[in-house]
Amino acid sequence: MKFKFIEEKIVHGLMILSTLVVFGFFFSIIWTIAKTGFPPLTWEMITQLPGGGFYLGKEGGILNAIVGSLMIVVASATLGLLISIPVVFYINVYLKKNSLLGYFTRLSFDVLFGIPSIVYGAFAFTIMIFFGLKTSLGGGILVITLLIIPIFVRSMDEVAKSISKDLLDASYSLGATKLETCKVILRQIAPGIATATLLSVGRAIGDAAGVMFTAGFTDNIPTSLDEPAATLPLSVFFQLSSPIPEVRDRAYAAALLLTIIVLILSIAGRIITNRFSKNRIL
């Protein structure tokens, strides 16, 4: 009995230590970015396009990267949802519970989930070369959509699998078709959709490797899908590579802005998830 008590105290202490280490890394990263990036983060930097010699320390801002990131993320998240939700419905409603096709579908998305973004970028770049496309906003949307679809599918699928079979049986017993039953499931997996969107947007807006191959970079805001688009991660990368200290400080400012955007999305995602969770039938 005494040995179990000591073992429990040791494990409890390790848990606390692990939590403190995680918080330590988190606050260390935030402090480093904020300390260096806050002073050069001005309203002009957020609202202006890069001027001549911006990457040499002259006037201008990163509005092009902010708008480009938001355009790619919003379009990719929308396309990802439109593709992923039917897949989740199919493997959870139309296929049998122990279906071999459903098993291999989930396994495939598990593998795709772990593939690095640079591989997606190389794949999308190959497709673009085959069709004679150049680096553009459309290419960035393509690679980010491919990147986040596995996140959408696996996140929503885990929630859909937890839905009680009695709920589905009740729907069928009332004469509902499988398509109508999908509407019942949609209401139940709403928290999963919100969580998946949060995870996907967080990964999409911070990706640099994929869009480097496909979206390119420009000092202007794209007005069509075939024009290059700048993103915040690439803006950080290019500025941090500069030998000029002032430009490197701007990189930290862009990183701080990116962190703030992700934080806002995280808080909004939590609020939406809690709101939808109240409507779930457990």
Detailed description of the structure:
Helix content is 75%, strand content 0%. The protein has 282 residues and is mainly α. Helix 3 (63-94) packs antiparallel against helix 9, helix 4 crosses helix 6 (137-161) and helix 5 packs across helix 6 (137-161). The radius of gyration is 23 Å and the shape is globular.
Question: Main attributes?
Answer:
mainly alpha, 282 residues, single chain
Write the layout of secondary structure elements.
Layout: H1 2-37, H2 43-47, H3 63-94, H4 100-114, H5 117-130, H6 137-161, H7 165-173, H8 178-188, H9 190-205, H10 209-214, H11 232-240, H12 245-277
Helix pairs in contact: 1-12, 3-6, 3-9, 3-11, 4-6, 5-6, 6-9, 9-12, 11-12
